[in-house]
Amino acid sequence: MLSVNAIVLGFISCTPQQKDSGETSPFTLEEQAHLNYMLIQPSEPIEADATNMYRNNPDAISLGELLFSATDLSKNGEISCASCHQYENHFTDALAQSTGLEITKRSAPTLIGLQRQRWFNWDGSCDSAWCQAIGPLEKDGEMGSSRVAISHVISEKYKHEYESIFGPLPNDIDSWPDSGKPSVEGWSDLSEEVQIESTRIMVNIAKSIDAFEYTLSPPQRRFDEFLDLYKSDHQQAYDSLTSIERHGLDLFLNEGRCVLCHSGSTLSNGEFHNIGLGERTWLEPLDIGRYDGIDMLRVNEFNSAGQWSDEPDGIKSNRISRLNQKTEQLGQFKTPTLREVSHTGPYMHGGHFETLEEVLQYYVNLNEEPVHGHRDETLQPLAWSSEDIDAILSFLQMTSE
Ligand code: HEC
Ligand code: HEC
To answer: Residue 57 in contact with residue 65, Cβ under 8 Å?
Structure first.
């Protein structure tokens, strides 16, 4: 884990020195490095991303917001993005496995802090939010629609909004068949024009949904108040914590090593780790996470390097060409954000734990046999008392209340 530390410590050296850092700070230099890295706004994009040229377009954002809750984009007319990413549930659905037309194999992550993700889905099978949005629209078990069916809905119900952003829709959509997508028989019989134009419409609406998702800022929580104080006065920030929160923060930053993966303002490094979770009767044993995700990303026609990207030869597409598949990726999943975490259970990629207490018991004991690969060696059993666990829990509550 030296490399993670090096990145975090490297970061401190290029930020302006804190007024109160050094000898007078109640935080060690290493703790300050982690805290300084958390100061970046959670809503600040992690890097420039020109693969979606509509990202900051206000009309695209409004259309995206409308479509995020539009059930008419699903095959049965009953499911939208917001069915599984519910506003009232912190953009998740309180299920171990999300359910659309069928039960899916994973738990819906919150969309909070999405701007600071580099890879999307638990396995990183997409490298942009617009690539990601296309998945549920067409997947049989989720919304189950198709690009041709979606084109009809857009033409019938959202024509005006769509055309004001993306220009005229093809004028012969009425003569297209009712539905069609590459995974269903009959696609290759469609004319090239229908194939390309229906794909373009679906990509455009995915880009407008992406633009909307980028406006979802995490709510201001006690954790942000603490960081605000820390910016100007370390001692005042320290004093603002209760003694139990202080102890929790200490365990999070030091002995628990949580911050090595749950780093930065969203408390996620956005990378993939195998934390060694064992089998669950309700989960597919063949879910190997990141290892498969890399293959899926490479062949995804909607990745950043593809023809639908607005910057097919930028930073993001270069990154795809540098990805290597390695056996250590077996069983790795993306580190989730810990913002709003008190409200986003059940936890882990397959809803392995109902409560945060259970998650903490797991990190303390590590008493499961990994289904795939081996557990990241950063994780070692912790000799924590129930007071220590309570302290971490009260620290985590600060990100959620
Ligand atoms: C049936 C429930 C369901 C529906 C409907 C659904 N999602 Fe999801 N969403 C999930 C699940 C489950 C995952 C995790 C998928 C995975 O890892 O393979 C996910 C992952 C995501 C992610 C990745 C977040 C991250 O941090 O990696 C985004 C973004 C997202 N969904 C947005 C959307 C949008 C936009 C729509 C509508 C077009 C949508 N979802 C529809 C269940 C759903
Ligand atoms: C080696 C990296 C790593 C370390 C260290 C680590 N985590 Fe995690 N954490 C992850 C990953 C990866 C997941 C998701 C695992 C999965 O679903 O397979 C996760 C999941 C979680 C979740 C569930 C969140 C959700 O929304 O599902 C919580 C809570 C959590 N970690 C807290 C902690 C705490 C507290 C510590 C320190 C005691 C810690 N983590 C240490 C990588 C790490």
So the answer is: no
- What does the pLDDT look like over 130-184, one tens digit per residue? 999 999 999 999 999 999 999 999 999 999 999 999 999 999 999 999 999 999 9
209 and 228 both lie in a single domain = no
Distance CA 131, CA 301 (A): 9
**120 and 236 both lie in a single domain:** no
Q: Which ligand has its closest atom nearest to the C-alpha of 396?
A: 2
* Alpha helices, H only, 39-128: 58-68, 81-84
- For the Cβ of 115 lying below 6 angstroms from any atom of ligand 1, the answer is no
The encoded tokens of residue 155 equal 């033409």
Distance (Å, whole) CA 128 – CA 125: 9
Rounded distance between C-alpha atoms, residue 52 and residue 203, angstroms: 10
pLDDT in tens, 248-290: 999 999 999 999 999 999 999 999 999 999 999 999 889 999 9
Instruction: Indicate the residue type of 336.
Output: P
Report the Cα 75 to chain-centroid distance in Å.
25
pTM score of the predicted model: 0.95
Cβ neighbours of 273 (radius 10 Å): 21
Closest Cα to atom 41, ligand 2: which residue? 258
Predicted confidence band of residue 188 (pLDDT cuts 50, 70, 90)? very high
The pLDDT, as a whole number, for residue 24 is: 87
Same domain (yes/no): 224, 130: no
> What one-letter code names the amino acid at 60?
A
Separation of CA 358 and ligand 2 centre (Å) = 12
Residue 141 belongs to a domain with what CATH number? 1.10.760.10
SS3 call for 103: strand
Ligand number nearest to the C-alpha of 119: 1
Pair 174, 224 in one domain? no
Q: Whose CA is nearest to atom 12 of ligand 1?
A: 108
- pLDDT tens-digit map of 359-381: 999 999 999 999 999 999 999 99
What's at 254, amino acid-wise?
N
Residue 303 within a domain: no
The total number of structural domains that make up the chain: 2
Percent of all residues in the chain with a pLDDT value above 70, rounded to a whole number: 94
Alpha helices, DSSP H, located in 254-314: 290-299
